[in-house]
Design the sequence.
């Protein structure tokens, strides 16, 4: 009986659509919001609302996760997958929000094979088959100032997308075989540029640690520094543009 009441409430919230106040928050917070065409905006609104409702938003100790925080994370996550089939981020069941930088104590590995037992500060993490973790102050700074070239929500959700086919190899599921072939060529070339120090500072050098991190930081560059990425790595920018279906050069100055 309780279950059916919760189900009815969920359906009512979904049917009511994104509240106007949330639309206003997005319009104030995200320069990309007005640039979405009607089709993409409808899809993005439906999925953003669904993510806010269905994901378990869990506060770190002594913190409170508000609807505004959930909206700010979900809105950016759903921008990333706006051209992907429904359910591309269905693996995200819970999101843990910390007030600020998370310091991981004990053994921790950011890169396969390298384990550290020093306290490690992190801004976010996509635990495989587990929750997403974010530092709220970083999420907010990234949303306000995309020109810094960083976006922790896009970075961690790029990992989720990459892992959708079961392997974190820097290649998310790509339906079009021709795009998949060009994707591998373009990513391999740009990855080697990063590894060999030929990238002119557009892609975070952290992308050189492995292809999965390369895809995550290239995604950040695509959305945060789209003009610079197009100049430095035109093929990479081109395949990302076909894949993501939105071109951040339309709304970004960087
Ligand atoms: Zn990463």
Sequence:
């Amino acid at each position: 009986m309780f279950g059916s009441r919760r189900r009815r409430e969920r359906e009512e919230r979904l049917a009511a659509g994104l509240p106007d106040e949330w639309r206003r928050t997005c319009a104030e917070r995200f320069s990309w919001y007005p640039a979405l065409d009607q089709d993409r905006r409808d899809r993005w609104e439906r999925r953003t609302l669904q993510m806010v409702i269905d994901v378990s938003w869990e506060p770190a100790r002594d913190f409170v996760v508000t609807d505004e925080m959930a909206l700010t994370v979900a809105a950016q996550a759903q921008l990333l997958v706006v051209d992907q089939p429904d359910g591309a981020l269905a693996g995200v069941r819970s999101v843990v929000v910390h007030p600020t930088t998370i310091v991981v104590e004990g053994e921790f590995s950011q890169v396969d094979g390298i384990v550290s037992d020093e306290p490690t500060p992190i801004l976010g993490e996509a635990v495989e088959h587990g929750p997403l973790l974010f530092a709220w102050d970083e999420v907010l700074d990234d949303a306000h100032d995309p020109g810094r070239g960083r976006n922790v929500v896009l970075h961690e959700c790029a990992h989720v997308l990459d892992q959708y086919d079961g392997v974190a190899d820097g290649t998310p599921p790509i339906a079009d075989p021709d795009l998949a072939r060009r994707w591998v060529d373009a990513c391999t070339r740009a990855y080697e540029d990063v590894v060999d120090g030929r990238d002119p500072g557009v892609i975070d050098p952290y992308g050189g640690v492995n292809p999965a991190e390369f895809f995550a930081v290239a995604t950040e560059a695509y959305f945060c520094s789209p003009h610079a990425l197009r100049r430095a790595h035109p093929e990479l920018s081109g395949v990302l543009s076909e894949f993501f279906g939105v071109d951040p050069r339309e709304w970004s100055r960087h």
